[in-house]
Amino acid sequence: MTPRQNPFAAAPNVLQAMLDVSSKATESGLEKSLLELVKMRASQINGCANCIHMHGREALQAGETAERLLLLDAFRESPLYTARERAALAWTEALTQLAGCHPSDEDYALLQEEFSPEEQAKLTLMIVTINAWNRFAVGFHFVHPVERPARKTA
Which residues of 2-27 are buried (b: 16+ CB within 10 A; e: fewer)? Predict the structure, then answer.
């Protein structure tokens, strides 16, 4: 894939605004591990390889396990996620897939059980922010770094 343009160079003020919003969302006080799972799940849904690469590495560096990242797409079926994480991930899916259907009352009820009204707003800001970044990255073909480790031979 060939990058289409560098929006950071083309419109630095616009991208600085995005960075400022991202900073607010990241520094919201919500658990870093939860925010990384949210960023990963939205990026998976949106098919953003650049963001999956970036946030997967950041999650691992922050102590997340590879097993939980590998099973993220099936968080509902795996016992590896807490009720709070499941509620956040369901809300992430609902807000990321707006074209398919609007968030259900059931998704919102799960959110209310695990998050205060203030936390709901903070989580929603993170979901909005990662979806915006996914659109920049997918639209302009951001290319993730490629490291080719040596493969094991039999």
Answer: eeeeebeeeeeeeeeebeebbeebee
